[in-house]
Each structure stands twice: as structure tokens, then as C-alpha cells.
Amino acid sequence: MARVGLEKINKLYGAVPAVIDVDLLIEDNEFVVLVGPSGCGKSTTLRMVAGLEEVSAGIIRIGDRMVNHLAPKDRDIAMVFQNYALYLHMTVYDNLAFGLRNRRVAEATIRREVMRAAEILDIGGLLDRKPRQLSGGQQQRVALGRCIVRHPQVFLFDEPLSNLDAKLRAQMRIELKRLRERVTTTSIYVTHDQVEAMTLGDRVVVMRDGRIQQVGSPLEIYSRPRNRFVAGFIGAPAMNFLDVTLARIDGQLMATAEDLAIRVPNEQTATLERHRTEAMTLGVRPEHMVLGDPRAENGTGFDATVVVTEQLGAELLVGVRVAGAIVVASRVDPWTKLQANQRLRMSLDPRGLHFFDRESGAAIR
Amino acid sequence: MLLLIAPAAAVLVLFQILPIVIGANASFRDWQLFNPKETWVGLAHYSYILTDRVFLTLVLPNTFLLMFASVAISLGLGLGLAHVLNRNFPGHGLAQTVILLPQMIAPVIAATSMRWTFNDQFGVVAALLRWIGFGQIAWLAERWPSFLIILFTDVWIWTPWFTLILLAALKSLPREPFEAAQIDAAGRWRTFTHVTLPMLRPVIGVCVLIRSIDAFRTFDQVWVLTGGGPARTTEVFSIYAYIETFVNLDFGRGSAAAIIGALIILVVAWTMYKAVDRLTNVSR
Amino acid sequence: MMAQATTTVRGQALATAWLAPAARAALMLLAVVAILLLFLAPVVILVITSLRPGWAVYYIYRGTAFTLQNYLDVFAKPAVVRAFINSFVLATLATIISLGITVTSGYMLSRFSGPIPRAWFGTIYLFRTVPYISWVLPLYLVDYYFGIYDTYAGILLPHIAVHICFFSWIMKGFFDSIDPSMEHAAMIDGCTRWGAFVRVALPSAIPAIAALAILSWLYTWNEFLFALILTGHDTALITVTMAQFVTELGTQWNLMSAMAVLAMGPAVLVTVFAQKYIIQGLRI
């Protein structure tokens, strides 16, 4: 149990920067998720904390102790790998005991710890088997067990669920959460799957091209994304983006495009008016797009043409063409009858309008 | 499809199957090379060989000893070298080239070079010994020194083969188990025995199998270095068969020797194959 | 997947190894250099000896007399020159002829399943295990019977048989690693099976074929046992010629070395210039 501090961390491969100016403080017992697309630097950052990669610049602290020059084994960390990295020719018991034996822990203590871990992870019956005889989910639990037995200060997870199929992944997510209830330790979790990030993290760190884009709780990141990238990356189906121009029409500030004129809500008018340009991108999440115009006084209605529908059973996804782009509305009643090229009246929930500067992508709130 | 292999099959039949059949046939007959009476003698040749003192106390032990020692030493050295060559260091390419040489040169040339190097009067080794003050060793005049030279030559030729294959295998190992071992505070040696070796077991098994079968039939080096001497003490199985046929001119007996050898190696190969299979399955 | 655990941050302050990392690295390098020198030594010794005039050979060292005269003397011996030519022609012919068969054989083993390929596979595998001596002794008689003893055909055909057994693997392994979907696509587009083979599979097999050609050629060039038994005066090959010179008493080692160096020539050239092909082919 300890804090982990990343101070101005940089990593260069030759002249190519992989991680740029990462500053992050992870509190004691916090579960932080690093999420982002491939190549964004999240794994590299994790590996620097583990000691598997050298830090080009910056300081890493574990428990307020600077660890830059410590070997992985001396950092009091444990890691779960994407490919489990179990020792294939050893039994599950020996896999769990390996790290402790190398550190000259007494066999009695080892036995106690292994049994405890086995009980928590429900792998007690597998202790005599070899990894090859286990299923993917079981192997991953053994990998988790390897972490628990040592009681380290920090857990590191490097995309541990990526190798599992979708159903198993969902199951393992729940197991991870339950594990967290029994074993609370500072944890850093890396994934490219935003669902994992949202469901598992106390705080989520979105990364792109080596830099941190935003840090915050899942709901914060979801409802108040700091830039266009975060807005589009988090949430599925992804947020819709329309290029609009701000204009004053009849004393009202409107976001306009080809056949679109959306009234900017009062709360956002002041900030947007102060902004230096009128070229904006309007971001609306699919669940904030409504069929019909129930509150015409909001001024957020528009006409659109149906392009495609996707039946999910619990809801219908409707893709419509407006202002030269295709946007998706979700949570539509699955029994709605719609046809391609049908003209529809739709509206936007005024509480779900995000404006981004078209050039920089920064959110304007 | 058949057309593809018809010419090949023809060549194989005529120049491999046919000779083996003829050989098998001859092994039961009184068949001198230049006086082929071809009268049936049943298992006379076989019983002669299997009770031949030379065969039992010299040829068979020599052959097996050479086989085990050569494979074991080349494997050990090859593994070590592969491990070292797995890092990138300056001169890596040069090391790679040098390692290949022994495999590409004819065994007779390698043996010739060794024979010259160990020449007890003028060879380089003799010079070195004299420089240290040791004295002369008549390498090729006695059984065990000669055997050592033969072994040395064989190891010289075949260690690179192990090195290359094991190096390729090492390079293809996933890195995560090694990183996990790092985090688990495993030292170098423990990592080697508990992570590297188990993952290499299948490859090592196959290499040992192939090389052992090959080592059994060594001929070139022994012929050039000692010809089986002195006084037949370094004879190996293939030399024994050759001598029976072309020196004693007894084709029947030579064929019987060849057949016995073939049977022995088949049994050995089969047993080893089973062992390797079990090894491979354990880690698969 | 790239291998090798990444070397981690090791601080000078916290190195716990009993030997400072720098010293350990130096020791390692020294060991590697020593071993590489060992591998190089026999070759180098031969080269140096071949450059010494006759009298200098019998005084161990301390001479700086070097000469190319040995090479000239070697070339002056018609038997030697003829042996070189024979070996060259044989190796080239054998390689060219067997290339077609081996490639198609490997292709068939890779792409087809069923009783015939399996039988073929088994046959080739079996003959890879059988010791040479078992079939080369009777081969002597077979050659006589067909009247091709001591002719090119007499040694060419057996070598082709060996090439097929030994080197079909390389092609099979290679074709195994190529996705057959490309050929299927070609066949859907109208190619016959043969057409797909020639136009799709073959072009991408060129590196493997190069490896195959090199290894086949070198095999025949270096081969000894078959040459010993199946050739006589007319088709003498260098390996045998060399061995004969060695086993005589009073060998002129300087000439011997020159001949050996010349015989090594192709191998060394290939190792230096065609390394990656060989390495590909040596893998089992």
C-alpha cells in the first residue's frame, strides 16, 4: 500500500518520443486505469514503473521512495501480463511460490500465503495442475495469485484481459472488482478497452501519442471530456461530431451548419461568445439524440434522413444524415419502424451539447 | 501428383531400396567380393559378428561412446554459445560467420586439419606443449588420445549446428516469462534453469535425436584421423563394416555388419523418439 | 515476438553482483573471443601451413617465409586438377538435377495429404535414418551391375537419392510456412494445380531454393564415403584424393594444406557471402 508518483516522465526510443511529460500522482489504494489507443504510451509508462524499461527523464516514486535505479525485484511490485507469463513446467502451487522462494521466505509462510491466495481466487483445486491444463480464465487467476502472495505495495496490470474472448472478459472484470474488495492495493491498470477503463477505475487516465489527455473519475471523463479525442474515445457508440459555425440569429447564439440550426443553451452562451473563433465542432452523444421534437421551445430540432438502422434487441441504433455527416442516435425503441431515406424530425438534448474548438479540439465550457 | 514424384521414386528405388535389399540378401550368403559363391549360410555372418571380440569390446563401445560424448558436449557448448550470442554486441556478425564455418567445411578437411594440428612432432599443439615444457604426446599412436582427437573434431564440427538452432529458438521465445521472473527476483541461473530450459526442451529434444542418429554413422573423420587404428582400437561401426567389405573382401559379412548397425540405430532412434515425444508433450 | 528480457536499470550504487557488471561483461567477451578463435583455428592453421615453403613446415614456427608456390605445385599435379574438375561437375550436375525433384517433392509433401504423400514422407524419413554404410556397400555392386561404376552416373544418381531424402525437408518446411490461400485463389482464377505451383508458390520460394541449392552443392562437394566406394581412377573426387594423400607416410603437409584450402574455398566463400540462406536451410 503506497502512493505512486510519476514526475515529468519521458521516454525516448532513439529520437522517437514514446512518453512525453507524464505527471501523475496515484493515491494509496487507488485503482488507476491508463487507457488509450495502440501506441499511446500507456504500456511503456507501466513498464517504466515496473522497472522493465529505463526512464529517459523524470522521477518515479513508489511509497515516496525514488525507484528509478532499482531493479524490478527491489521495487516491491507485482505484475500481471497480457499473456499471463506463467511458468509452464511448474505446477500452479510452484508458480505462486516461485517469487517467495527466490526471496528465501520460509516454506511454512509460503504455504500459508499460497493457500490464502488460492482461496481468494478460487483456484484451490488447481494447485497441482500445470498451466497447460488450465483454461484462459484459470490461467489469468493464477497470474493474479502470483501478485497477491507477495503483498507488494503496487499491482501492475498490462492489458490482462486482452487475450480473453468477450464473454470471459466480462466475467473477469467482475472478478477483478470482487478481488479488489478483498485485497486493496494501489493498482495501475493498462488497457485499450474503454469499457474496462470505465468499469474498473477509480480514476481514468486517457493517453494519446505519449501524452496524458485527461485524468478524472469515469463519470467526469464521460460527461465533461476535455477535448475532442477524449470525447470520441470514451463511450460506445462513440460521440457524434458535427462541424458547425456559431452565429447570432435573432439575438440568439446558434450553432449552424448546412441544414441545421441548433440554439446554444443559455448556460454555454457566455463562454462561447467569448471564444475567439466561430468555427466549432459540436459533439453529441448518441443517447442525447432523440427521435421527434418533444420540446420544440429548446430550439434544438432538425430534419434528417435515415441512412441505416442496427437492431440490438434492447434498443435500436439509427444512423441519419444531417449537415453532410452521418450521426447515430441510440436508445431508440427497438419496435420503431424506419426505412432508409425516410425523412425524420429529431432533436438534441440541450444538456448533452459539447463544443470543441475545431482546430485545437479543446472543449469550450 | 504421382507424376511429381515418379522420377524421384525411381531413383530412390534403384539406388537405395535395391542396394539395401541386395545387402540384406548378401548378409545371409557366402559372398566374397571377388568370388561370389552366394551359397546360403543363414545367420553365420551375424553370429560371427555378434561374437566377434573386436565388435563387442571395441566397435560398439566406441560408437556409442562417441555418440553420447559428442552429442552431450556439443549440446552443452552450443547452448552456452547460443545464450551468449543472443545479446547484441559488436562483432556479432563476425561471430555468426565464424560459427558457420565448421558446418560448411568437409569433415575430411576438418579431420585433415586436426591431424596436422595434432601432429606429434610438427603440429601447433606439439609446439604449444613444448613451449609450456610439457613433452611430446603421441596423439594418434594410442587409443584414448586418438579417440579424444576424434571426439574433438566431431564437437568442432557439430557445436555450431546446435548453436545456430538453439540461437534461433532462443530468439523466438516470448519475453514476458523472463520479465515475470525478473519481478519474481529470480537470479540468472534460476532464470536459465526454470524459464529458459523448460521452454527450450522440445527443440533440444529434437536436436539431440537427429544428431545422435547422425553421430552413430560417423565415418569420414575417423577414417582420415586413424582409419580405425591403432590396431582397430578406435574403430566405429561404419568403419567396421567398410573394412569387412573392402579390406577383408567379405561382402556377405560386411553387409551383415551394416544390417546389424542399421537395426541397432533403428532401435536406438525409436527409443529416443519416444523419450523426446514424452518430453515435448509434457511442456506442450 | 521479440525475445530477451530487456536489461533493466542497474544503478552503480545498488549492484549486488559479486562481480561488477563491467568486469562480468569483459569476462564474457573474453570467453566468446576464445571460443571463436577455437573455431577459426583449424582453418587458419591450414591456411598458414599452405603458405609455407616445404622446408619451413618441418620447423615449427619462427619462420616468416611465405610463398604461393604450394598452390602452383598443387595445380601442377594432373590428378589433383582432375579431381577438382570432377568434384565441381558432379556437385553442379547433382544440384541442378535434384533441385527440380526436391522442390516438387517438398511441395507435394506440404500441400497434399493422403496415403501417397504419407508413404512418400515415411520413405524419405526412413532413408534419412538408415546409416549410409548399409546401402553404399551393396551400391558398389549395383553400380557394377549397371555398368556405371566409376562413371559420373554411378555417383551422380546415388547423390541425387541422398539430396532428395535430405533436402525435401527444407522445401516442405518452407512451403508449410506459406499460406496456401494464394494458390487457392489462383486456382479459382483458372490456374491448374501445376500452374498455381509455378506461378504463385515458386516465386516466393526463391530464397529457400537458393538455400537448398547451396546446401546440396556443398553436400556433394564435401561428401566422402560414397566417393570412396563408388569412384575409382576415372572419376576421382577431391575428398578422396585428399584423404589418400594424408594416409600415405611422409605426407607433404604444405601441399596437403594448399589442396585442403582450395577444397575449402567454395565453403568459405558461401559462408561469407550467402550466410542468411544457409542459416535458413540448416534449421530442422
Structure characterization notes:
The complex is a heterotrimer of chains A (365), B (284) and C (284). Chain A has 365 residues and is an alpha+beta fold. In chain A, 25% of the residues lie in helices and 35% in strands. In chain A, strands 6-7-8-3-9-10 form a six-stranded mixed sheet, with helices on both faces. In chain A, α2 packs parallel to α4 (136-148) and α3 crosses α4 (136-148). Chain B is mainly α and 284 residues long. Chain B is built from twelve helices and two strands. In chain B, α2 packs across α12 and α3 (53-85) packs antiparallel against α9. The longest helix of chain B is centred in the first third of the chain and has 33 residues, at 53-85. By secondary structure, chain C is mainly alpha-helical. Chain C folds into two domains: 21-70, no CATH class; 77-282, MetI-like (MetI-like fold). Chain C has 14 helices and no strands. The two termini of chain C are 20 Å apart. At the B-C interface, α1, α3, α4, α5 and α6 of B face α1, α4, α5, α6 and α7 of C.
